[in-house]
Design brief:
The complex is a heterodimer of chains A (412) and B (79). Chain A is an alpha/beta fold. Helices cover 36% and strands 15% of the residues of chain A. Chain A has a domain at 80-106 and 211-384: Rossmann fold (3-Layer(aba) Sandwich). Chain A has helices at residues 37-41, 46-50, 84-90, 110-123, 136-148, 162-169, 182-195, 206-209, 214-223, 240-254, 275-281, 307-316, 326-340, 346-360, 399-405; strands at 4-9, 15-16, 31-35, 80-82, 95-99, 128-132, 151-157, 174-178, 199-200, 231-235, 264-270, 320-324, 370-374. In chain A, the strands form three sheets. Chain A has a six-stranded mixed sheet with strand order 4-5-13-10-11-12, with helices on both faces. In chain A, helix 10 links the parallel strand 10 (231-235) and strand 11 (264-270). Chain A is globular and about 75 Å long. In chain B, a hairpin with a 4-residue loop joins strand 2 and strand 3 (43-51). Chain B has a four-stranded antiparallel sheet, covered by helices on one side. Chain B has a single domain (2-70), classed as Alpha-Beta Plaits (2-Layer Sandwich). Chain B has 79 residues and is of the alpha+beta class. Chain B is globular, with a radius of gyration of 12 Å. Classes of the chains: A alpha/beta (412), B alpha+beta (79). Bound molecules: pyridoxal-5'-phosphate (PLP) and zinc ion (ZN). Zinc ion (ZN) binds next to loops of chain A. Pyridoxal-5'-phosphate (PLP) binds at residues 108-110, 136, 235-241, 298-299, 345, 347, 375-376 of chain A.
């Protein structure tokens, strides 16, 4: 029995074959992979998962690919770190960090979704992959395409910083710089995806691509000793990651791998781009698009595709949403680095900044088992903290001067 | 002839106005609404436009002129 039954419309439920489709022909709602959980239940178990590879492919039974994985074999299974110092500072007894700063090969959680998307794209017979991205997604698609020997197109807006472009060019994809605004690039990519038979990972392959994010939930549960946390804090751009972490937890429950899911989802956004969090706090079930203005570029999506579903999942879990300012993001990046030795990118600053606020507000309590998702590496967004880390201490090349500068006793 | 799908959001003050009807008269495009949510505080439509590509482009420009936010049906895909 195949585990994937169909692609089904999230709005009207109409079903489609598991091909490269992403929009319902009837109502234009987004499509999602529908599994045969009865069949999966017969073959999945904790023991089987535990004996699998040390990558996200240990959850193959719940991923939308038919055969063996062929791309991204080492993505996922990143450390879940018990954050004692940060926990003590914030006042949480059991705090964990899911550290996707060290995901393989491009140091962000996007390596998960891209591993799944490209494996599926190959199964569907694609030789060319593409994406539209200003950062992490482009890095990951370009790197995986190089390793898989696939043709690759990366579309970027014309005003992107040099450092970010370099991170793509090194893998030698076709980097296409589109003149015009964000909206222009956005429109063009949607039209190109409709025109060419390419695997546009976050457009026509999106139903498969997005499923890769579930593995963050699976790993968390397994690494906690088959427990679901009480609270999770998740950064949101399109809102897909949050939505899929919820789906992953619910799947484990449905399959009997977890008894029960007490988890409250907490969504984190930067104040300068917070369409989802603002709607949630105002008690609305719809969001208003915004023009992003924040240093958290990886989360700067003004009209998020999964915003509506993120609102729904958070409400279902009785969770919360919060925002942080750019200054709070920088403070939080430093706090994380200085307590736990982890240098996260701005999205991590958003997560830790929001975690801090939620603890202060009493939303997250001392005895809640809490997991914060650190989804990208700080070395990629150094410009965000460059003015906030101070300077080296300068001394003359003399032992006396050194000893004096630090007020040390000689020979001590 | 091209067929393109869009998510159109109205500004709040324009919710009572028949914007799509006007667009259908001002430009040579056929519009087909597939899903919509129009309330006092929000208004959006998922619509298919059929017409010559350049004329669809002009119609989108017209919608923007009227204060609408027009995105492809997938919303923001540049991540
Ligand atoms: C580092 C990082 N964290 C979190 C996210 C949020 O992901 P989503 O768009 O699924 O909400 C992104 C998305 O681009 C990202 O790059
Ligand atoms: Zn539908």
């Amino acid at each position: 029995m195949p585990k994937m039954q169909a692609l089904s419309c999230r709005e009207c439920g109409k079903e489609y074959p598991t091909r490269d489709l992403h929009v319902c022909e009837l109502c234009f709602g987004p499509l999602e992979v529908k599994y045969d959980y009865e069949a999966i239940k017969g073959r999945i178990s904790r023991a089987k998962i535990e004996s699998g590879p040390y990558s996200l492919w240990r959850y193959h039974d719940l991923l939308p690919v038919e055969g063996e994985p062929t791309v991204g074999l080492y993505a996922g299974f990143t450390p879940l770190i018990r954050a004692r110092n940060l926990g003590a500072f914030l006042g949480i007894d059991e705090l964990y960090l899911k550290n996707d700063c060290v995901n393989h090969p491009t140091l962000s959680f996007k390596d998960r979704v891209v591993a799944v998307a490209l494996t599926r794209a190959r199964e569907l017979g694609f030789e060319t992959v593409a994406c539209a991205s200003t950062g992490n997604l482009a890095n990951s698609v370009a790197a995986h395409a190089a390793a898989a020997g696939m043709q690759c197109y990366v579309f970027i807006p014309g005003d992107l910083e040099a450092a970010k472009i370099l991170g793509n060019l090194i893998y030698r994809p076709n980097v296409v710089e589109v003149e015009g605004t964000y909206d222009d690039v956005n429109r063009l990519c949607s039209e190109i995806a409709g025109e060419h038979r390419w695997a546009f990972v976050n457009i026509n392959i999106r139903p498969y691509y997005a499923e890769g994010s579930k593995t963050l939930a699976f790993e968390t549960v397994e690494q906690l000793g088959w427990r679901a946390p009480d609270q999770v804090v998740i950064p949101m751009a399109s809102g897909s990651l949050l939505t899929k972490i919820w789906k992953g937890l619910k799947e484990f429950e449905k399959l009997g791998l977890l008894d029960h899911v007490p988890t409250k989802l907490n969504g984190a956004q930067a104040e300068g781009c917070s369409p989802i969090a603002t709607a949630y706090r105002q008690g609305r079930d719809f969001f208003k698009p915004v023009k992003p203005q924040t240093i958290a570029k990886s989360l700067a999506i003004g009209n998020p595709a999964d915003g509506y579903y993120a609102l729904k999942a958070t409400a279902e879990s009785k969770g919360a949403m919060e925002t942080v300012t750019d200054d709070e993001i920088v403070d939080a990046i430093k706090l994380l680095a200085q307590t736990e030795g982890i240098f996260a990118e701005t999205a991590g600053g958003v997560t830790i900044g929001v975690l801090r606020k939620l603890v202060k507000q009493g939303v997250i309590r001392r005895n809640d088992v809490t997991v914060a998702y650190i989804t990208g590496n700080g070395l990629k967004t150094q410009e965000a903290v460059i003015d906030a880390v101070g300077r080296p201490i300068r001394i003359q090349p003399s032992l006396t001067h050194f000893t004096k500068t630090f007020g040390l006793k000689e020979g001590a | 002839m091209a067929k393109l799908r869009f998510h159109i959001r109205y500004p709040e003050e324009k919710i009572p106005e028949p914007i799509l009807y006007e667009i259908g008269h001002e430009y040579k495009v056929v519009t087909s609404i597939r899903r919509a949510d129009v309330r006092e505080t929000t208004g959006w439509l998922d619509v298919e436009f059929t017409g010559e590509p350049d004329e669809i482009e002009r119609a989108i420009g017209g919608l923007r002129q009227k204060g609408c936010i027009v995105d492809p049906i997938e919303l923001n895909v540049v991540e």
